[in-house]
Amino acid sequence: MKTINKDDLRYIYKVLDFRVISDYLLEVFKRSTPSYRNQKIVLLNLLNYLNKNLEKITMIDIKRYFDEIIDKRTNKKNHKPISINSKEAYRSYLSSFFDYVIGRFLEDNIEYRNPVPNKRIYKFTRYESDIKKQTEFYDEVFTEL
């Protein structure tokens, strides 16, 4: 069974939080192994960065994580900024996780809101490489017509 253990997390989470994190990753693993790997990396990165219990995580915390970690992140091979699509995938992973948290907390009568800011509230930095990729895509589409 694929899940996490307490050594994966730097912060000592409450039992409920640890169970929610483990159960979510198990659900993801049942759907797709590659997705499980990606989501586990992003989720543990966030949780180890914030060092807070789940119910204490706010939109300001997530925005700070996006500003300081995700938006400035570079590709390890060529040290170029990661693509806007990868950044949006990270946002999607975190949003899905916190939607799951909402459901689990609701079972225990804990009110909670998804702290992940949507595209209208928080926009990632676009780099020239992102724009160039889009332009090349649209050039191909138009030439096929």
Automatic annotation (TrEMBL):
Its name, as the record gives it, is Core-binding (CB) domain-containing protein
Source organism of this protein record: marine sediment metagenome
In alphabetical order, the GO MF annotations are: DNA binding
Q: Which InterPro entries match?
A: CB, DNA_brk_join_enz
The record's PROSITE patterns line, in alphabetical order, gives: CB
Domain (Core-binding (CB)) ranges: 16-102
